[in-house]
């Protein structure tokens, strides 16, 4: 009998931390969750949920906080609005608002205290159980034509442990990110092994210019590590610190690999990144794109 290689469970669940206060966008976010800021004609968070769905992750858990009720309302049916649109015969807009409810199961749990991304991920333990899971940060939008998350899920299924997404950033930007030291993996150019992680290092202390961006596929081993992880930078429980422990350890669930991403990514948690996302995605919009592109050319010519 031929011996078969044991197969690992494929990632089926997504966790989206969305409990932040959005202070960089005040006063706009005083009463509105930052995740609900519109990017062209839909809130930023909808792009992230749609990305999870395209990757086959239809079971989504959002980690929320106070004043985030708008997120739940958005991903829910609105019978009165639908009835009004039906009376008007406006099927196009009915289809648009129903896109938000057709993303599979969406669940919510509150992060009781603002103790960092690592703490937010730990809040997902009961829902996730003992299976690998994806974490998608709501501030990071990935181009709809990029298959980053699928590539990460494939790598985790093949190699085990956890997988992060890395992107090369300018040297002057490394202090804003978790930065990775990496080494090649024999037999593949698609994936590298992470040997170390430093959270927001000074430029001279950064091990590379490869920054961790907001996509992770994590082994459930991360939960035990997070419980033992002391607060780090900013007094918060840093997911980067837990990943460092996983990278250094051995055994089931340990080890960290990375997919280096070279596609389109927008940091909508930053004002300039948000505006860039609105412009670039607006140019791609099937109804607005041509007119916006023509206007931009005229506007730029006058600068």
**What is the averaged pLDDT score?**
88
Q: What is the radius of gyration? A: 20 Å
* Number of separate strands: 13
**Corresponding CATH architecture:** Alpha-Beta Complex
What shape does the CA trace take?
Answer: globular
**What's the oligomerization state?**
single chain
Supply the CATH class. Alpha Beta
| Helix run count | 11
Intertermini distance: 73 Å
Strand order of the largest sheet: 5-4-1-6-11-8-12-10-9
Structural category is alpha/beta
What does it look like?
Strand 2 (38-39) and strand 3 (42-43) form a beta hairpin. This protein is of the alpha/beta class. It is globular. The chain has eleven helices and 13 strands. It has one domain (13-269): Spore Coat Polysaccharide Biosynthesis Protein SpsA, Chain A (Alpha-Beta Complex), CATH 3.90.550. Mean pLDDT is 88; it is low at 1-5. The chain has a nine-stranded mixed sheet. A two-stranded antiparallel sheet has the order 2-3.
List the helices and strands and how they pair.
Layout: E1 13-17, E2 38-39, E3 42-43, H1 44-54, E4 59-64, H2 69-74, H3 79-87, H4 91-99, E5 105-110, H5 117-122, H6 125-128, E6 133-136, E7 140-142, H7 148-159, E8 162-168, E9 178-185, E10 188-199, E11 210-218, H8 221-227, H9 239-248, E12 256-260, E13 265-267, H10 271-284, H11 289-301
Parallel strand pairs: 1-4, 1-6, 4-5, 8-12
Antiparallel strand pairs: 2-3, 6-11, 7-13, 8-11, 9-10, 10-12
Helix pairs in contact: 8-9, 10-11
